[in-house]
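Lab notebook: predicted structure, single chain.

Context: the supervisor wants predicted structures on file for every construct in the current expression panel, including those that have not yet been purified. This is the next one on the list. No modifications to the sequence; it matches the entry in the shared construct table.
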Amino acid sequence: MSPPLPKITVVTPSLNQARYLEETICSVLNQGYPNLEYMIIDGGSTDGSVEIIRKYEGKLTYWTSEKDSGLYDAIQKGFARSTGEIMTWINADDMYHRQCLFTVAEIFQQFAPVKWLMGANTFFNEAGQCFLYEDLPYSQRWSRLRLRLFDGKFIQQESVFWRRGLWEEAGGYIEQNYSLAADFELWLRFSRYQPLYTTSFILGGFRFRSENQKSYEQRDQYLQQVTELLARENRGALPLLFYRLLIGLAKAVPKRKWRNKLLAGILDLPPKITFDREHGMVFSRKNDF
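Prediction complete. Output recorded below exactly as produced.
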């Protein structure tokens, strides 16, 4: 007999996102995942969002629409009410892929060392069409060192899930003092305790919008906050110049196979969860980045 599916908490923070909100809600509910705890924390929208939420309220664990202090305050409100064994949030314009929650549950059940997880990076345009970003600004494998080095790549929040035990070990809160980079602050905190495992399975995707997208319009401010967080995190740690030197030497190796093997060793990258025809989900040591 298969073990019972773990309860998964999904929180959607929203403010005046009626244009995209229903697609986000449906991407969660249409999973058909039987042990779902889904909450929508709306910041007092005036654009028809509340009417959309009410349309689905019978399938929601909780929802509210009231003034808050922004995105991360809304997320914290949701998590404060949550009870799921696995936790995540999905913003009100982004979406999950088919079977995402079942895939997440299977990975966490099969691989005990995995305490937090990131899926393969995918994206949506305004029309909801999925695509891969050619000049991928997101890394496929991570370690604490790679996060601290910050080589211009990012963890895709829409694809990240974690166990409640890690959330509690890392303090059980979303930092409210970083209006744009509180997700990055959370990843840094998680990385103090557990490595981030990645998978080639697709889970969630980020939607590119033509207007009112903070991640684009306030990118410089976001990077400034990232720089401040990294300075705080790296204070007192072994100087990163040493690792940058090693990485530079490894990149000079002419053969790609050996170069990637050296880089993976220096960065201490954990194995990746991939699909194998004979064995299904497996840990892979293939040195892709």
